[in-house]
Amino acid sequence: MELELGLALPNHSANNNGFETENHKEYRQKRVFLEDHSATGVEGTTLSLLSWSGVAEMEDGVGRPPKYRKPHDDGGPRRFEGWPPTDSSPRRRRSHLTATEQVVRKSMHVKVKMEGVAIGRKVDLRDFDSYHDLTSTLMDMFAKYSKIESGEEYTLLYLDKEGDWMLVGDLDWEEFVESVRRVKMLKNDNKMGFRLLLSKN
Amino acid sequence: MAYSFPEEVLELVLSFLRSDRDRNAVSLVCWSWYEIERWCRHRLFIGNCYAVSPEIVIRRFPEVRAVEMKGKPHFADFNLVPEGWGGYVQPWIRAMAASYPSLEEIRLKRMVVTDESLDLIARSFKYFKVLVLSSCEGFTTDGLASIAANCRNLREIDLRESEVEDLSGHWLSHFPDNCTSLVSLNMSCLGSEVSFPALERLVGRCPSLRTLQLNRAVPLEKLPNLLHRAPQLVEFGTGAYSAEIRPDIYSNVAEAFSVCKQLRGLSGFWDVVPAYIPAMYSACAGITSLDLIYAAIQSPDLVKLISLCPRLQCLWVLDYIEDAGLEALAASCKDLQELRVFPSDPFEAEANVALTEQGLVSVSEGCPKLQSVLYFCRQMSNAALITIARNRPEMVRFRLCIIEPQAPDYLTLEPLDTGFGAIVENCKQLRRLSMSGLLTDRVFEYIGKHAKKLEMLSIAFAGDSDMGLDHVLSGCDSLRKLEIRDCPFGDKALLANAAKLETMRSLWMSSCLVSYGACKLLAQKMPRLNVEVIDERGHPNSRPETCPVEKLYIYRTVAGRRVDMPDFIWTMDKDAGNPEAFVSNGAVEMVGDA
User: What does the record list as GO biological process (chain B) (predicted)?
Assistant: First the structure.
């Protein structure tokens, strides 16, 4: 479908408001098609809003709204820039953090959650002096108290003092300790970042 | 019979007109009224700093004493406007320094203010009294020092939500010892410690001080020193509300609060230690405004606190309040007009608190004067929205953020079209609406049909097609500001409603489907709009014309294209010699309702 870039004078008395009803039907049909697809459980390519700016999508000439999907089970919501629309200035970030965590920490305890494990752990960062130290302790902790499949790979993430979830490993250990507020271990479906190989030794 | 109405009389009559809308209307009656009005307009409101130029403003209004101006689009608050976008106040300050020697008040929102600008203000305006910098950035505490040192008659310095590079707290010490004029000081956004003795002395020697909002660095133990020196305070913002739990500190704080019999507004409360909350109880009976968004106070403590504030009109709180707390609010605070509930943990999918749509429904049932709502939650239903709409038909501002994008009615899994439809249909005075959740084109049909007083609309992850946008642009008669992100709205609706855009202050669209070609076409047909394409992927010429732009900001202007843009923003060319048959609607007043 060609996108017509004509300029119609605003004509509100027309019942199609200046649109081609055909195209609108096409829109609707395409949307229904998408919906039917996912209803049968077929893993179709769901066009996410984020990929609209690519050229490929525009060849269709149609923008399809993303089908509603339930939130992922990976422990995090879908992330969009600037969403939810809470004020993102550093000052507000600090304030949100203080609501859940003290920015000025008296201790170095951080919560650690592992995906798939209901109960979290708490570690004192002062007990460690390197990433290796931290990760091997975490491996031991979770392997000991939870049923972990051996050979599972996990990605280690941390919540920094600005409220963002980041991959562990980019900063110096000291900088990391200063910045980290929480730690999360996600099952590693895509091969990215810092991986922990868990074994039941 | 020809008679002339004495100008002086007319000027006197016009001086009673405060509203810009009225003044704008008056100035369109005839040339002599235009002339008289422009000489006696002393307060300027410029809603978009790029809608008009300093030169045009100064030429028309020679006797200005107060300026209020806004820069960046609202979505800048959520990081959607890239760094370097613009909104620089310096050209304005330079121009006004030369032409408005009697300028007394400057209020800016979302603008870039430098130390140079602050210094120029401090040195150029002998009678300068009021500086309000709301969500501004670009300056340091050095700029504040200059204001403090040089403005002999400073009454108000309010830095709300601004990002200030905090070089040191010494700026406060620059207030001269003979400065006694301060009425309002809001330094809550600052990080570093100010010299406490200097603050104490300043507060002590300003008998008219009514508003004092401290920053987090001021410790709780020191509060009594300040409150005792300013028992006349009406609005007070604490610093960190935590200290070792000691009876002497507690009783000092409690006593200090009891001394301030005029307190109507409280804020601050960083790092709250629950044991100290009762210390402020004596102030509660008179409190009309409570801002607890920095306070991690749990629901039971909040319930107790709120039940002591029967005169509360405005509450800003975190979702720790939970449904139970909102029920208590509904029971105790029958004067409540404005409620804002912010998320304590916005990036977690699962709720960390027991706050649902029910809390808002309770408040809508129990608070007959409720007219302004901002509510973050994780679930909503059409039934709840319909109930809220029916309970509160006089709602003026309704902003709902369901944290998961496109979340449907959690009971029926349907879109929330009928719920929001009920809001716009019942609330005929609605001026501002923000929507979220799963929404189809249908909701926009309702909005276009019913929301005739709507002035500002915020849309995200909503709609199916251009019909949605078309409904809004063609139906919302009072629309001034429209901001859209991540919606499948494209060229058709925009181009078909091009003329509408000249009746609005601005339109923001990001992650939508408007093509580069359409942007160019729009700019050519509507020379009084600036059509600005923001695209960090490089010049749109490097991609096909049909390719959607990343972000688009369109606003009406009499100042032509702006020249201070960074290299990822392009103003589409206006075709100079191509007016054709395009007629825009009515005379457009750029200043006063820009």
Answer: auxin-activated signaling pathway; pollen maturation
Whether the pLDDT of residue B263 is over 50: the answer is: yes
Give chain A positions within 8 Å (CB) of B521. 5, 7
The answer to whether B521 contacts A5, with C-beta atoms less than 8 Å apart, is: yes
Put simply, the answer to whether B511 touches A99 (Cβ < 8 Å) is no
Residue B34, classed as helix, strand or coil, is: helix
The 10 Å Cβ neighbour count of residue B161 is 20
Nearest CA in chain A to B190: A91
Chain centroid to CA B400: how far? 16
Run means of pLDDT, 10 residues per run, chain A, 201 residues: 39 37 39 35 33 32 38 54 76 40 53 82 84 86 67 79 84 86 77 42 36
pLDDT of B188 strictly over 80: yes
Give contacts of A55 with chain B, Cβ < 8 Å: 543-544, 547
At position B369, the amino acid (one-letter code) is K
Report how far residue B307's alpha carbon sits from residue B317's, in angstroms, rounded to the nearest whole number. 15
Neighbours of B33 (CB within 10 A): 17
Give the number of beta-carbon pairs within 8 Å between A and B: 173
- Nearest residue on chain B to A9, judged by CA atoms? B496
B17-38 confidence digits (pLDDT tens)? 989 999 999 999 999 999 999 9
DSSP assigned state of B237:
E
- Lookup result for tokens 């250990």: A173
Query: Residue A22: its pLDDT value, please?
Result: 40
Q: Dihedral of the CA atoms A136, A141, A147, A152 (nearest 10)?
A: -20
Q: Average pLDDT in the B537-553 region?
A: 94
Q: B499 contacts in A (CB within 8 Å)?
A: 9-10
Tell me the two tokens of residue B7: 């100008």
Q: What is the pLDDT of residue B560?
A: 94
For A78, the closest of B405, B438, B491 (CB atoms) is B405
pLDDT confidence of residue A143: 77
Mark which residues 553-582 of B lie under 8 Å from A by CB: none
pLDDT of A151 reads 58
Q: Which of A14-21's residues contact partners 24+ apart within 8 Å by CB, and which partners?
A: A17/B467, A17/B470, A17/B471, A17/B474, A17/B496, A18/B470, A18/B492, A18/B496, A19/B466, A19/B467, A19/B470, A19/B492, A19/B496
Q: Which residue of B has its CA nearest to A19?
A: B492
- The model's pLDDT over B27-80, given as tens digits with 9 standing for 90+, comes to 999 999 999 999 999 999 999 999 999 999 999 999 999 999 999 999 999 999
- CB-based contact B279:B250 (threshold 8 Å): yes
- How many other β-carbons are positioned within 10 Å of the β-carbon of residue A66? 19
Q: Closest Cα partner for B333 from B299, B308, B350, B298?
A: B308
DSSP letter at B513 equals B
Please indicate if any CB of chain A lies within 8 Å of the CB of B404: yes
pLDDT (tens digit per residue) in B383-422: 999 999 999 999 999 999 999 999 999 999 999 999 999 9
Chain B residues 250-289 with CB within 8 Å of chain A: 270-271
Lowest mean per-residue pLDDT among A145-154, B100-109, B136-145: A145-154
Percent of chain B with pLDDT over 70: 96
Residues of B in contact with A63 (CB under 8 A): 488, 490, 512-513, 548
For residue B79, which residues of chain A lie inside 8 Å, CB to CB? 81-82, 88
pTM listed for this prediction: 0.77
Give Cα separations from B508 to B75, B249, B531 (angstroms).
Answer: 8, 51, 10
Q: Are B491 and A3 in contact (CB under 8 A)?
A: yes
Contact A135, A193 (CB under 8 A): no
Q: Are B562 and B534 in contact (CB under 8 A)?
A: no
